[in-house]
């Protein structure tokens, strides 16, 4: 089992998720400073991304802590446990990597929406149009 490789993966995911949370604050600042009114659905997207990234951050830290328990040096750990530990580690690291990819794709979609609203065209499903503004 490559615990060292999974430790590096955990470090990378923790750094990436913390960076994404900071980028979400920047995204909120940009969107609030824009001249366009945004629908609440846009802010719900940001909330979902923030929740997903926070869960990812905590889960990765927990996996990182579990991997740093010196099981191979313990005398009372039965040898038949190691395949289960191996496969659970592989499964958890795959889930965490997939969650990070999902969060980045969601962030990409949200950033692309703000680019369309602010820079390219005011007509976007997340922008409030004039008809909705009058109501």
Task: Give a description of the structure.
- By secondary structure, the protein is mostly helical.
- It is built from 4 helices and no strands.
- Helix 1 runs antiparallel to helix 2.
- The protein starts with a helix and ends with a helix.
Distance between the termini: 61 Å
Average pLDDT across residues?
Answer: 79
Order of helices and strands: HHHH
What is the makeup of the main sheet?
A: none
Give the proportion of residues in helices: over 70%
Determine the number of helices (DSSP H or I, runs of at least 4 residues): 4
What is the tally of beta strands? 0
Spans where pLDDT lies below 50 across 5 or more residues: none
What shape does the CA trace take?
A: rod-shaped
Coarse structural class: mainly alpha
Q: What is Rg?
A: 21 Å
Question: What fraction of the residues are assigned to beta strands by DSSP?
Answer: under 5%
In short:
By secondary structure, the chain is mostly helical. 76% of the residues lie in helices and 0% in strands. The chain contains 4 helices and no strands.
């Amino acid at each position: 089992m490559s615990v060292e490789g999974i430790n590096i993966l955990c470090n990378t995911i923790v750094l990436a998720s913390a960076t994404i949370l900071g980028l979400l604050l920047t995204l909120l600042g940009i969107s609030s400073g824009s001249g366009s009114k945004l629908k609440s659905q846009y802010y719900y997207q940001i909330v979902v991304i923030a929740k997903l990234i926070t869960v990812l951050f905590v889960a990765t830290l927990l996996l990182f802590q579990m991997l740093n328990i010196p099981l191979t040096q313990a005398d009372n750990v039965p040898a038949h446990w190691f395949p289960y530990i191996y496969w659970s580690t592989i499964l958890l690291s795959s889930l965490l990597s997939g969650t990070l990819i999902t969060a980045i794709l969601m962030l990409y979609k949200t950033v692309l929406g703000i680019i369309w609203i602010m820079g390219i065209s005011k007509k976007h499903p997340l922008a409030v149009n004039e008809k909705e503004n009058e109501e």
